[in-house]
Amino acid sequence: PFAHNGAIMNPTIHTLTQHRTYRQFQTAETLPTEHLQAIINSARQAPSWMNGQHYSIINISDPALRQHIVSLQPNNPQIGECAVYLIFLADLHRADLCRQAYEGTFAAAGTADALITAVSDASFAAQNAVIAAESLGYATCYTGGIRQVARELVELLGLPSHTFPLYGLCIGTPAVEMPVKPRLPEHTVYNHNRYPSDTVLQEGLAQYEATLIAFGEAREKLPYRDKFARYYSRPYTPHNSRLMQSLGWLTDTE
Fold it and tell me: Is 59 helix (H, G, I), strand (E, B) or coil?
């Protein structure tokens, strides 16, 4: 380790603190097999609840299938441009097969806690993949918008009950350079022993909104607080509650 601007630094911390999202990739690129395997190996080694590994990863390597997904998500053209596109699923299907092998009831699979468990496991695996890819010099971009077309993906990918497509991950070489985006003030997300007061948070949010306006990212059309005031005014994927229930999620109404 070494000190940089008063902070401890090493190659891993440098990779983490230099993260930025890229949405434009060099096309017609193929990742070396050993690089892709290293990324998948890293994802698979992520921590998980009870070593359940309640996730699956689907590599969308078929160009026609990739373009079909782009047609469903035209606001995410990077899906078709990047070298590798991985879709991460919350997955309790293998747990269901364990249940069948030992004649369990699977009564807990429809609870909120089971969903949290599967989403957490998938998220840990996905972030490991991001860190591995960026450590190899690649750019990454999550595409959470695929939740808007979850019903179509269930059919396209042949997804069984107790699975759900959470997000995609684009990996490749960037076509443009991107600056590192400022984050919320530390005191709004990191504290000791107690949650901060609303006064402290409101002041921090106002400060951050001004910081992002000065940062001037072209794709941000609204001030930070206004963006989320609008976003949470209506459901992002209003039809997914029924879809998830049909797939075995959130069936416990107690």
Answer: strand
